[in-house]
């Protein structure tokens, strides 16, 4: 379905000109006055409104802007022949999303509309995220001193605009920390845009971040708005920042220093107003010494550091996390709340959790599904944890099959679990060999980079 644009203007020629340009990509409707506009909005809420500041009747554009926002929360772009800084500021203060002149290039108008619609989508997502954060993640979960320090820094750093560098192993919750910073900041009602720099092919990453113009390269059949534009006034989270290639590093450095950039293939300089939070599971300082990461960019990113400790360094938080994930899984599955036996909890506390929070959550979800009663016991735990490293499996004697059919089923289950464990060990050693470099690991293994990233996440690494 095409996005819906409502044009409010008493100039029929202007309406016809704009409709002609926009009709191909948008559904256009129009109103000649405020009364008709409000009636149209009550019948069908548009995605964007183009409002003439100086309507040639009893309506005043600024007054109508105020009325429209009481009817529906729709982004409004003010349009006029009489552009001035004063009226622009006044319109923006009243809630207009942007401001253009009727002499604006129509191509630029289309870019502005596209950007406004994308920001509306992200704003709705941000509101949904806020509700979810209020429901599930009012605080980072845990009571250990290590995690209290993380939470203290989140609150301390939230209302500054300085860049933050979050470090920690895979699975510790670096993105959750970034979202918490955004949630507690004065930017929380604007978009939070996350991008995993390792999950996108290097030749496409710069386009994802900064966008491109039509025809900028082979396959660029239309203009693309980049993540930095979509995150305008909000926060952009750059996960696995170490995977940025040299060109993207230079461009990111310019955004941080000059707060501006150009789309690939474009000549127009775009001003940037975003809070940048980066994250990595690598030691960027070591990469700088190896000439694999720009030193100036490293120091620009590492203004406010937050290190998220691995789960093995805060074992006292494991019972709290386990009970939280059990409750969460039961709620999502719409089943009665389950508990966990002391013996089962002891096993979870004593395990090192190399995949950290992500591995623990996946494990608990699996245990909730597999447990038959209202209490999760040792027998419900993944056998990989209910054993030592020297043994793959350690079966309860009561689980030894009594029929060949049961034996056949058990053999399949054992083979599947053994395969998963071997796959996990293989991936762990592969990542260790290449120091977590997804690109080099994928090339060595002969695996597509994106597929390897999915396998790593699936195994909780």
Task: Walk me through the structure.
- This protein has 461 residues and is an alpha/beta fold.
- It folds into three domains: 4-104, Response regulator (Rossmann fold), CATH 3.40.50.2300; 137-309, Rossmann fold (3-Layer(aba) Sandwich); 313-458, Helicase, Ruva Protein, domain 3 (Orthogonal Bundle), CATH 1.10.8.60.
- It has 18 helices and 14 strands.
- Strands 2-1-3-4-5 form a five-stranded parallel beta sheet, sandwiched between helices.
- β1, α1 (12-22) and β2 (27-31) form a beta-alpha-beta unit.
- α13 crosses α15 (356-370).
- The longest helix has 31 residues, at 106-136.
- The model is unreliable at 386-398 (pLDDT under 50).
Keywords:
five-stranded parallel beta sheet, 3 domains, 18 helices, 14 strands, 12% strand, Rossmann fold, alpha/beta, 461 residues, Helicase, Ruva Protein, domain 3, elongated
* Stretches with pLDDT under 50, minimum 5 residues: 386-398
Structural class: alpha/beta
In the CATH classification, which architecture of the largest domain applies?
3-Layer(aba) Sandwich
The CATH topology of the largest domain corresponds to Rossmann fold
Percent helix, as a range, is: 40-55%
How is the biggest beta sheet arranged?
5 strands, parallel
For CATH, the homologous superfamily of the largest domain is named as: P-loop containing nucleotide triphosphate hydrolases
